[in-house]
Amino acid sequence: ILYKFGGASRFMPLIFWLVTAVVMALGAGSNAAPAFLSPIFFGIATEMGLNPLIAALGYYTAGTAFNLLPWTSDFASKTSINIPVFGETTAKTISYGAMVYDIVFLLIFFVVFCLITGAFKKSDKIVSFEKPEPMTAVQKKTLGVIIALAVLMIVPMIIQQFETQFSDTV
User: Fold this and answer.
1) pLDDT tens digits, residue range 131-154?
2) pTM of the model
3) How much is the average pLDDT of 50-74?
4) Do 24 and 35 touch, CB atoms closer than 8 A?
5) 71-75, long-range: CB within 8 Å, 24+ apart, which pairs?
């Protein structure tokens, strides 16, 4: 990503946001994503001459927006708080609504903040990232194992959530 978009600093805030969204969609908890991504994003922002606050808001807003995906632990814990009061169906509906609201509102907030601070303007600081070396056979196998495990762990949870949701409405 850095090699492809490193010269276009104006896209980096959105890349921060999208990478965090993908990490959260893979099931990282709301504490895991910032702990894992913040040192990486701060390093990139510093290297590219971007305000570090853009990096912080990038992972914070996306992490908050995507922490209520139905297959995450945050969804389960936050929905379970509402179940005794509202019932299971209504509690899930509230969580889905909160998730959509968070994604839309926090993306708009982040984009507006970037526009106000000028984060989408091309930086005067020229940074060239070296082209990564081709992946070795071991790295390709490792990446395949990681992708396979992610699919095997996440897809069943997503299917289960949709089955549960649709069985509640039928």
Assistant:
1) 778 889 999 999 899 888 878 877
2) 0.71
3) 86
4) no
5) 71/27, 71/154, 71/157, 71/158, 71/160, 71/161, 72/24, 72/27, 72/28, 72/29, 73/27, 73/29, 74/29, 74/30, 75/99
